[in-house]
Amino acid sequence: MELRVLEYFLSIADIGSVTAAAQQVHVTQPSLSRQIRQLEKELGLTLFRRGEGALRLTPAGRAFLPVARDLTARARLARDTARSMASGDGVPLTVIAPPTTVTDVVAPYVVASGPEGQITDVVEASPHGVYGALAVGQADFAIGTRPPPTDLSYVVLGQARVWAQVVSAHPWAGRDDVTLEDLSTGPVIVMDELHGVRRVLDEAVAKAGLGYQASYVARAPAVAQALAAAGKGVCVVSDDPRFGLRSLPIRLDDELLHITLFGAWDPTHYAAAQIRSCLDGLAGFCRDLFASPPGMTSDHTPAT
Predict the structure, then answer these.
(1) What is the four-CA torsion angle of 199, 252, 206, 158, rounded to 10 degrees?
(2) What is the DSSP string of 154-181?
(3) pLDDT digits (tens, 9 = 90+) for 221-252
(4) At what angle do helices 29-43 and 18-25 cross, to 10 degrees?
């Protein structure tokens, strides 16, 4: 069965005349009739009732009609996608990222990009699983909080601050920031060890030779914030505040605690240039979003 013949079938079904359909598809009438009969033979079905100069669909023809439309539509989509893949331009992009990054970074960027935006789909994954999911083809590029594997190209998108969030009645609520020493003095609500925020907090605390009392360990940032809003402690997250919480930056000796976001892709991807362009735009968006210092668009491409 050839897709071209299916298109002939659809033309006759829509027009109701072999003669008019032949003119529309630029095929002689005898040739068109012959190919439709061959299609019926291949299918083992009679698709048209013939007589009085017109063709009408049989019940079998009516049942086959939506199948033919679906097949030809998919074929056109496949051709258009292949052309886009070959040119590397205009391919809708899918990104895989942790849920917090999707909510606070990717979704606002999609809105800011407007109708010409290239990201059209998002897959959520745990922070430690984004690069593995990218490797098996679940997305065109990934955003992660760990340095990507050496076989991927990447750009540094920005540095998102890690916040200590407190209720408005908390003694720290009127302060400009808190320190690691402050966090070591009371109950802290932290993310589980799979989250990048927990990793950078633990690394900073260990480097400072300090510790903290983890009163609760949450798997979802919103739950950590809800526990803090319920008065169960100070939560450490990178999310925008919820539930009326106040966000305080965590000050280290010479900087504020932050988590780095990496945009990574396979350098052999057919749309690698488009992905890089999209990530450059996202990096600029992140600079404004995070108020990062200049120079946050460094990139790396593995040797080939």
Answers:
(1) 20
(2) EEEEEEEEPEEEE-TTSTTTT-S-EEHH
(3) 899 999 999 999 899 998 888 899 999 999 98
(4) 100
